[in-house]
Amino acid sequence: MPDKRDIRFFPVFIGATIAILLEEIAILVDEIVIGSISTDEAFASVNLIEPYIYFEVFIGYLISVAAAAFIVRAHGAGDHKKMGDLFSQTLIVCGICGIILTSIYTLFTPDLVRLVADDPAVYDGALDYFNAMRFDPLVDLFDTFLFTYVLYRGGYVQYYVAGVSRVGINALLSWQLGLQMGLFGVGLASVISIMVELLIICTFLFTKKTRDQVQMAPELPGSTGDSKGRFSGKCTCYIYGFV
């Protein structure tokens, strides 16, 4: 039977609401820092890059909401093995999507920046900021999903500590790196703060007493095995999230 203590509406609702507020505060911090240490053109440059950042956020929430729906369904059925499989598969999807987005952003950086910041007055600033933020999908997609998962599983302490730490570290580093490196430093501070938040969230995965073993068995062609020349290769990973 599923552990009903893990299913709490109000803590999840309040946590999700606070997460949205912290997300907006983090964006506001960047804008305040840029407005304080840079010109109006630099402030406009950062806002012109926002569509790419929000597209990445959209992909992250799309993955997280879909995965959460399946995980909650498996949890309700008491199928912890399936929960582990879904958790592992979602991490793989986050990694693949993060690599794809970062690759696209890296390969087409000048063209993507020119698409939204064609004016020479803002192009250089937008390019500097985007050169840092193009690596954001590598960590932000994991962060979005694990934020959702940890909140659902009851990791409220890690959840709130991670969110507050992100805002504080982002504010501090944005100011320091922004003064030294300009808009690239502000973007780099955002990426670093998300990395720190992700590390704090991941500590929840190591607080459970039970470790579940999740197995995936793809069919690999051209190897000895059954009559079709295939065998089931098992890749084993250990997930600390399920009891």
What does this structure look like?
This protein is mostly helical. It contains eight helices and four strands, in the order ααααααααββββ. It has a two-stranded antiparallel ribbon. Strands 2-3 form a two-stranded antiparallel ribbon. A hairpin with an 8-residue loop joins strand 2 and strand 3. The chain is globular, with a radius of gyration of 21 Å.
Strand content: 5-15%
Count of runs of 4 or more consecutive helical residues = 8
How far apart are the termini? 11 Å
Shape: globular
Helix/strand-derived class?
mainly alpha
| CA-based gyration radius | 21 Å
Return the average pLDDT rounded to an integer.
77
Uncertain residue ranges: 1-7, 209-243
Total beta strands: 4
SSE arrangement, N to C: HHHHHHHHEEEE
User: Which strands sit side by side, in order, in the main sheet?
Assistant: 1-4
Into which percent range does the helicity of residues fall?
A: over 70%
Largest sheet: 2 strands, antiparallel
